[in-house]
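seq as requested:
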Amino acid sequence: MDFKLNTKQSINNSIPQELIGYWRIGNRRYEFTNDSRYYVHDLDVPYELVDSGSVLVVAGTRYNRLYGNPAELTGIWLLEDDPTEEWNLRSDGTYTYHWPGFEYFGDYSFTESTMNTREMRAVIMESSGTIIFLITHQAQLLSLWWPHNGTL
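struct tokens:
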């Protein structure tokens, strides 16, 4: 799976080398990069366009089309249960996901029936064995970690 990295600058934080890489739990993969960014990947998520392309169903969650060609996945989608949540899937393979007070951005790819996403969630720093997640829309999140034999 190929994803484009949509960052224009690098962050000069140093994180432990043993943390850098991919960590997987089921169909979700977590990525720590050497430029101190934290991504979440959702892999092989089933989706379908229904109701003549006016509804997108992703793993059972329904989105109503606000804008876009009904024959395409790209467009602006509103969460059916809470239309304040908006997912903008662009034709260049990037997306933003908005809801009141929050925003994530990422890349996506898809087949006829599954979708993969890579979402940038935070910039991270490490201090004395504690990971500090600097999340743009929330307060700092502190997490203890210790890698052992390839497991966090």
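The first strand starts at residue 21 and ends at 25.
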